[in-house]
Every structure is written in structure tokens, then in C-alpha cells.
């Protein structure tokens, strides 16, 4: 019981912004609005919101690896794609009876994590750091895209699942929860919305606890100064590898949910552009904090979609400009800057009152 | 089919792979080796060179002059990019990656909007010749010679000219060079322009052999990055030997299983090499020497 309490105390701490009743009150309010939201909206808009939420997981994974861990990875989209394809292959082969889709979800995430263990071993135990890590992960991502893009022929199949090359896989069953009487099928509207929202809140809170625990503090210590962390007796390679694998699993979760949401997955979801977008959300949001990453991702995604309606070609140029300007002018991220500013105002107000 | 034709065919494929790796990597290697900056917009500089070359050839210029124009325009764009973006990020290497990626996104999509989804190509010059049962393109031999020429020219530039000496001094101890009166900012600008120009040259040289699309840079960058990662920070001790080793791997895998497996071979090679030699071939050689 005390252990559980200690765990909840880790919800706030030095590694995450936002503390005290004001922050958690706001959190509860946002959560209540999010829970009530489908009651006042139509299925299409709710489905679209699910699409936004799906991307938050990959953004959080990048926030963990890049923002907290300090190693820039372009490989998140690779894990995204591996898990997405994994879910497709498993469910097309074994169907959706007996809750198998949920097993497939877990298995697909595990496959992505295993791949990350393999890749991460070579990278971190080879002590690749900094820019090289980015290049190697990028090369892996591009390679996977090219590989999947050329699997058009009928000889490329796993079981009964055709890989279909550039067109990608489609028509995999949606998530199905076994239920006495009739199984609940989660199509991309209200049902899936509550599942994804629940997962999102769980992952967000769990990451807060993780980052404020001693593990999180070591990760941040490695980001600040790897040699110092090593001199203090931590095997930084293990910590980096574990962070990388957790990040890969989150990116994989994003990939599975994306596949479930649209019931398709294509190689271009692992391409250059796809790999750039999470980077933009996280950089613009503020990579070194979980809350700002979530807010930044949702805001930039909404802006991107709004822009796409007026001219999809220009939306990508705008995103590129946004990224370059953020790096030049507000390297810590726009949302995080605003959050810190609000925090300072709040402290000043409470001081004046007291 | 006798042994000689087989040997020639293998040599030809090796030369082709070597030229592609070295030409696409040397611009990146100069910028990384001299400045520690990874230029993710490298592929877009190559694309810029190829587009300018094609445009000038369509306008009536002979191909060599077109390639020269492509090189110069890329170098000029490089100067602008260095002044506007890269200059402010020298102490933040990870941010230069992110920023240059933003630039690459802008360049690819901007070209798509302005020029369209494809551009009329340039015919491959020189025709072909016959050895045994197969015919070979003469232009590929020209490309191989160009790769050797670029390596030789870079060697000469960095060892025998005043700019080369100043550049190497700036790279070794920047503030010492600055104290001795070297304008280090100018040197960085020129080095970046040099790297961008080399990318443009690669684009110009390969413009006659490929379809010109805004995303053509992506075909080059994987090979370029792999070569630079394996080679390490030194252009001569790194890029050239890495190009040789990787060309053997790539041409062998390609002739065994096809284009894709050539690239997979490259990727496996890079992952193994970084595990064994984290600082690349040049890091290994330099450590042995001291």
C-alpha cells in the first residue's frame, strides 16, 4: 500500500512540468471534457480525434528517447511500421475470434520492441552517440520502406497475408473484445475513442512516474553528461537501451492503433516525410517535457489538417519552415515556452496574494 | 563466356558502385569531417544540381557546362543556407540535423510545387561498348573516373592550397586559428559551400542517368550516409576506403540477389562496422598511427 502511494507521489517531480492542485485540477477538467466529448459530437469527428490521439504515442516515444534521453532517433517510424505490419499479418492469418486481435496488438508491439533490442544493442553497445545514432536509425527506416515497397509480387506473403508492395496491406479486422453474447467490435469511432483515450492517459501517467523515478533521473543525467553518469557508476548503455526499447514499444503501439484505426498500412508510413512529422510535433511542442509534447502534437496536427484542407502541397512546406524556425528561435519548443511563462505568472500571483 | 568477361563485368559493377558511393558521399563527408555537421538536406543539394544541369542542357548548353552550372548553383545555395541557418547552430549538432531536415522538407515540397512532379531528363551521352555478350555504358566509366578525379582534387585542395591549410587549422583548434587571424566564419562558409557544390556535382553527373523527380535526393542519401558513417570523419582515410569496401559488398550482393539486397548488404555492413569500429575506418587508422 505504501509502495503504491510512493508511486503516485512520483506523478510530479523535477523531470515533469506541472504540479500542485491547480495543474491536476486542470488535468481532471481536460479529462472530463475528453470523456464527455463523444456525447456532443458525431462519429466522423470522433474518429478523426482518435487519429490525432494515435499519433501522440509516437510523439511521446520520441520525447522519451530524444527529449529525455538525448539521443535523436529517426527510427520511430520504423517501429511504427513494423508493429503496424505485424498486427496486419497476425490478424489476417488468425482472424479476430476469441479476442485474438488484442493478443495481436500485444504481439505486434512486442515484435517492434524485440527489433529495437537488436538494433539498440548494436548501436548503444557500439557506443554510437549523437549524430551517428540519427543516421543509422534513419538508414534503417529508409531501408525498411524500400524493402516493403518492393514486396508487390505474389511471392511476398506471410501465411495468407499478402504484403502488396507500395499499396500496402488493408482489410485487417478491427480490434474486437470478446464478450458473452456478442463480441464488441471497436470501429474507428466512439468505441475505439474510449480505448485509445484510456491508453493515452495510462501511458502519460506511467511515463510521468517513470521519468520522476530514479530510472528517469539517470536517463536525464546521461543526457546532460554521459561521462559523468558513467563515472557515478551507471552502465549508461543499459539505460539507453532500455529507454530505446520502451520508446520503440510506444511507437509500435502507435503503429498498431493506426492500422486498427484506418485498417490499412503502407510503406510510405515509414518514409522520409512520415519520419519527419513526429520530429516536428515534438520539436515544436517542447521535447523535454511530456505534457508539452502531448499538447504540441495535438495543436500541430490540428493545424496541419486545417492547412491541408486549403492546400496540401503547401502544408508540408509550412511544416518545414515551422521546424527550422523553432530550432533557430525557440530550441526548447514553443508550447513548453508558453507553459513556463504561464507557470512564472502563476507563481508571481500566488506570491503577491500571500 | 570466358573468365575475362566475367572479371570485366565484376570490375565494371564495382566501379559503378564505387563511383556512386564516393560521389554521393564526398560532399557530406567534407561538411561532416570539417565541421562536424550532418547535412540532412544533402540529397536536396544533389537534386538541385541535377535540376540545374538538366535545365541548362535544355536551354542549349553542352553537358559539361551544365554540370558546372549545377555545381556552382548548389554551392551558392549552400552559402545562403550556411548564413541563414547552419551558422547559428554550430554548438548544437543535433539541432543542425533537425534544422537541415526541415530544409530538406521545404526543398522537396517546394520543388514539387514549382517545377512539378517530374522534369524532362537528359539523354545519357557516349553510347555503349561491347565486351563478351554484354554491352556497357561508356558514361559509367566516365563517372568512375570522375569519382577518382574528385578525390584527387579534394586531396590537392586540402593539402596544397592556402585555403586547405587554413581550413584544416580551423578544424583542429578553431579558437587558435581565430587568434592567428584566420576568419573562421568565412572558412566554415566556404567549406559548407564546397560540400554543397560537391553534392551539386554528384547530381549533375548523375542527371543523365536517372529520372528527375523532387524526391530523387532520397536515392542518394542512404548510400552517402552509410559511406560517411563507415568512413568516419576523414575524407581521404575514410570515404575512399569505405567507398571501396562498400562497393565490393554492394556490387557482390547486387549481382547475387538484386538491387535491394545490395542495399540491405550495405545496411548490415554499417551496423556491424559501427559495433566494431565506432569511429569509422579513419578513426581506426588514426588511432593506430598515434
UniProtKB/TrEMBL annotation, chain A:
A GO molecular-function descriptor: branched-chain amino acid transmembrane transporter activity
Protein's membrane topology: Multi-pass membrane protein
Organism: Bradyrhizobium forestalis
Entry-linked PANTHER family: HIGH-AFFINITY BRANCHED-CHAIN AMINO ACID TRANSPORT PROTEIN BRAE, HIGH-AFFINITY BRANCHED-CHAIN AMINO ACID TRANSPORT SYSTEM PERMEASE
Top-level taxon of origin: Bacteria
Protein name: ABC transporter permease
Record Pfam families: BPD_transp_2
Main location: membrane
Chain ranges passing through the membrane: 21-40, 52-70, 77-96, 102-124, 131-149, 184-207, 241-258, 264-283, 290-310, 316-342
Statement: the UniProt record of this protein carries the keyword Membrane: yes
GO cellular component, as recorded: plasma membrane
This protein's UniProt keywords: Cell membrane, Membrane, Transmembrane, Transmembrane helix
Keyword Cell membrane included in the entry's annotation: yes
Entries under InterPro entries matching the protein: ABC_transp_permease, LivM-like
Subcellular location: Cell membrane
Automatic annotation (TrEMBL), chain B:
Domain of life: Bacteria
Listed GO MF terms: transmembrane transporter activity
Subcellular location: Cell membrane
Listed CDD domains: TM_PBP1_LivH_like
Cellular component per GO, a single term: plasma membrane
Membrane topology classification: Multi-pass membrane protein
Primary location: membrane
InterPro entries: ABC_transp_permease, BCAA_transport_permease
Protein name: Branched-chain amino acid ABC transporter permease
Source organism: Bradyrhizobium forestalis
Amino acid at each position: 500500500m505504501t509502495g503504491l502511494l510512493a508511486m503516485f507521489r512520483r506523478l510530479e517531480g523535477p523531470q515533469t512540468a506541472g504540479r500542485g492542485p491547480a495543474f491536476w485540477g486542470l488535468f481532471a477538467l481536460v479529462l472530463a471534457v475528453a470523456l464527455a466529448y463523444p456525447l456532443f459530437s458525431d462519429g466522423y469527428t470522433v474518429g478523426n480525434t482518435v487519429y490525432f490521439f494515435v499519433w501522440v504515442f509516437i510523439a511521446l516515444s520520441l520525447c522519451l528517447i530524444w527529449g529525455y534521453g538525448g539521443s535523436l532517433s529517426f527510427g520511430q517510424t520504423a517501429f511504427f511500421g513494423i508493429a503496424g505490419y505485424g498486427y496486419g499479418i497476425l490478424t489476417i492469418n488468425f482472424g479476430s475470434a476469441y479476442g485474438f486481435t488484442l493478443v495481436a496488438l500485444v504481439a505486434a508491439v512486442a515484435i517492434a520492441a524485440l527489433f529495437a533490442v537488436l538494433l539498440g544493442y548494436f548501436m548503444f553497445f557500439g557506443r554510437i552517440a549523437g549524430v551517428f545514432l540519427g543516421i543509422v536509425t534513419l538508414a534503417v527506416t529508409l531501408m525498411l520502406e524500400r524493402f516493403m515497397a518492393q514486396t508487390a509480387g505474389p511471392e511476398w506473403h506471410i501465411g495468407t497475408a499478402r504484403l502488396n508492395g507500395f499499396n500496402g496491406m488493408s482489410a485487417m479486422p478491427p480490434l474486437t473484445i470478446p464478450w458473452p453474447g456478442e463480441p464488441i467490435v471497436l470501429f474507428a469511432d466512439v468505441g475505439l475513442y474510449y480505448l485509445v483515450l484510456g491508453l493515452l492517459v495510462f501511458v502519460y501517467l506511467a511515463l510521468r512516474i517513470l521519468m520522476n523515478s530514479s530510472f528517469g533521473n539517470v536517463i536525464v543525467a546521461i543526457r546532460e553528461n554521459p561521462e559523468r553518469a558513467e563515472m557515478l557508476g551507471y552502465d549508461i548503455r543499459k539505460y539507453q537501451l532500455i529507454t530505446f526499447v520502451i520508446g520503440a514499444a510506444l511507437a509500435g503501439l502507435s503503429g498498431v492503433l493506426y492500422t486498427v484505426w484506418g485498417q490499412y498500412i503502407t510503406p510510405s508510413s515509414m518514409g522520409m516525410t512520415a519520419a519527419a512529422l513526429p520530429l516536428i510535433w515534438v520539436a515544436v511542442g517542447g521535447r523535454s517535457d511530456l505534457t508539452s509534447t502531448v499538447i504540441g502534437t495535438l495543436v500541430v496536427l490540428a493545424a496541419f489538417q486545417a492547412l491541408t484542407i486549403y492546400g496540401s502541397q503547401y502544408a508540408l512546406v509550412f511544416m518545414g519552415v515551422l521546424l527550422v524556425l523553432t530550432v533557430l528561435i525557440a530550441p526548447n519548443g514553443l508550447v513548453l515556452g508558453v507553459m513556463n511563462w504561464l507557470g512564472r505568472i502563476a507563481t508571481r500571483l500566488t506570491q503577491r496574494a500571500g | 563466356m570466358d573468365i575475362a568477361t566475367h572479371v570485366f563485368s565484376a570490375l565494371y559493377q564495382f566501379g559503378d558502385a564505387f563511383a556512386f558511393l564516393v560521389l554521393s558521399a564526398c560532399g557530406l563527408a567534407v561538411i561532416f569531417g570539417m565541421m562536424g555537421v550532418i547535412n540532412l538536406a544533402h540529397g536536396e543539394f544533389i537534386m538541385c544540381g541535377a535540376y540545374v544541369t538538366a535545365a541548362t542542357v535544355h536551354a542549349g548548353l553542352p553537358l559539361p557546362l551544365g554540370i558546372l552550372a549545377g555545381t556552382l548553383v548548389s554551392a551558392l545555395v549552400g552559402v545562403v543556407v550556411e548564413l541563414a541557418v547552419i551558422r547559428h547552430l554550430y554548438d548544437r549538432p543535433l539541432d543542425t540535423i533537425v534544422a537541415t531536415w526541415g530544409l530538406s522538407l521545404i526543398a522537396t515540397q517546394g520543388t514539387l510545387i514549382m517545377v512539378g512532379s517530374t522534369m524532362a531528363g537528359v539523354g545519357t551521352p557516349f553510347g555503349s561498348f561491347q565486351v563478351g555478350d554484354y554491352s556497357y555504358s561508356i558514361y559509367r566509366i566516365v563517372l568512375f573516373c570522375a569519382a577518382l578525379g574528385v578525390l584527387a582534387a579534394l586531396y590537392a585542395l586540402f593539402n596544397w592550397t592556402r585555403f586547405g591549410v587554413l581550413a584544416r587549422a580551423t578544424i583542429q583548434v578553431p579558437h587558435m586559428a581565430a587568434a592567428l587571424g584566420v576568419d573562421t566564419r568565412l572558412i566554415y562558409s566556404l567549406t559548407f559551400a564546397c560540400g554543397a557544390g560537391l553534392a551539386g556535382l554528384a547530381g549533375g553527373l548523375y542527371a543523365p542517368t536517372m529520372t528527375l523527380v523532387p524526391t530523387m535526393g532520397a536515392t542518394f542519401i542512404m548510400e552517402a550516409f552509410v559511406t560517411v558513417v563507415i568512413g568516419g570523419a576523414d575524407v581521404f582515410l575514410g570515404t575512399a576506403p569505405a567507398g571501396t569496401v562498400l562497393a565490393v559488398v554492394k556490387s557482390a550482393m547486387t549481382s547475387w540477389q538484386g538491387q535491394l539486397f545490395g542495399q540491405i548488404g550495405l545496411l548490415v555492413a554499417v551496423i556491424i562496422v559501427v559495433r566494431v569500429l565506432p569511429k569509422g575506418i579513419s578513426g581506426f587508422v588514426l588511432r593506430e598511427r598515434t
